Amino acid sequence: MLRDITNWGDEAFWLWTLVLTLLVLVALYFAFRNLHHARLIEDTPTSRIRSAPQGYVELIGEAAMMRGEPIIAPLSGMPCCWWRYKVERRNDKGWRSVRSDKSVSLFLIQDATGECILDPEDANITPSEKSIWYGPNATPSAGPDRGTGTTHNLLDRLGQRISVSTTFSGDFRYTEETIIPGDPLYAIGLFSSLGEMDRKAMRDDMIRGRLSQWKADHATLLERFDRNQDGQIDIDEWEAVRRSAEREVTREQMKEDQQPLHTLSSTGTARRPLLISTKEEFDMVRQYRMLALASLVGFFVLGSGTAWFITSHLIQI
User: What is the pLDDT of residue 307?
Assistant: First the structure.
């Protein structure tokens, strides 16, 4: 082995030195990152939604859907709050990813005091349920529990229950993770509430939008508000248009006031990430500490190997 390293040219030696050094730094980064996440979860007190302060807070409750059009998991076709999937195809070297995607639709976390909208964009999400099943096509014809094989719990990996089909035939493998309504939910992120100034700004924007929409349909506008039938909207008639738009928008906003007025979203910084999980707080801390330990072990192993690699080459020069 020493002779092989000695025979390497400078270009190959420095290339591998760079690769190994980068791997060492990546392992160190993930060690500190996971430890930081564990410390954040431990040090941030749990807040109730109704009384949560503005800023970086921790909420514990259960998942729920937003009112309106439901979120549907693309592979299984099941209603859910959030989904992530991957489709892989079998080849001579194993499984190759064909496509993957994840949901960015809003959903809710609710506790005994209220509801809060979760924006999953840029979130680190760890659901506790994962389904894996197989089939002959890139798009499954049915979900894991509807004709593609009986499923069973294969293992519990760091608190995640993985359900795998007992039927392994098929050139395609489907993996889908979901958060469904009623799942226990942990979330930590930037909490903000909609204030009166925000509501007024939203109302003004909605009124301007409504007026622009009405002006674009000039015939209907004349039919509704041209009282003197002169084919145009004068100043008094335009004031009536504006008041009518204001009344409509106000009524709509009063209905929307039944929606949650709190949001939890990303801070935009790595120091205070948005974390969402269906695991309990203790399990999340344990998971991040185990990942930090594994990364730290990788750092020392790779670091020692890199030092040996460089030293072995240099002492032979």
Answer: 85
Q: Per-residue confidence at 275, pLDDT binned at 50, 70, 90?
A: very high
Tokens of 274: 């948005």
Please indicate, yes or no, if residue 62 is contained in any of the structural domains.
yes
Quick one: average pLDDT of 184-202?
78
DSSP 199-241: HHHHHHHHHHHHHHHHHHSHHHHHHHH-TT-SSS--HHHHHHH
Residues 44, 140 within the same domain? yes
**Is residue 36 over pLDDT 70?**
yes
Residue 273's SS3 state is coil
- List all residues 6 or more positions away from 57 whose beta carbon is below 8 Å from its beta carbon: 44, 47, 188, 189, 191, 264
Give me the number of domains the chain comprises: 2
Q: Same domain for 290 and 158? A: yes
249 or 78, greater pLDDT: 78
Model confidence, pTM: 0.69
- Say if residue 226's pLDDT is above 60: yes
Q: What pLDDT does 151 receive? A: 47
Q: Which residue has tokens 């730094």?
A: 25
In whole angstroms, give the CA distance from residue 137 to residue 146.
Answer: 16
The answer to whether residue 317 sits within a structural domain is: no
Exposure pattern of 149-164 as b/e (b: 16+ CB <10 Å)?
A: bebeeeeeeebbebbb
Q: Answer yes or no: is pLDDT of 179 > 90.
A: yes
Three-state DSSP at 186 gives strand
Has residue 1 been placed in a domain?
Answer: no
Tokens 């390497």 belong to residue? 8
The answer to whether the beta carbons of residues 124 and 90 sit under 8 Å apart is: no
Crossing angle for the helix pair 218-225 and 235-256, nearest 10 degrees? 100
Residues 167 and 117 in one domain: yes
Non-local (6+) Cβ contacts of 142 within 8 A are 148
Closest to 165 in 3D by CA, of 181, 152, 147? 152
Q: Are 54 and 116 in contact (CB under 8 A)?
A: no
pLDDT at res. 150: 46
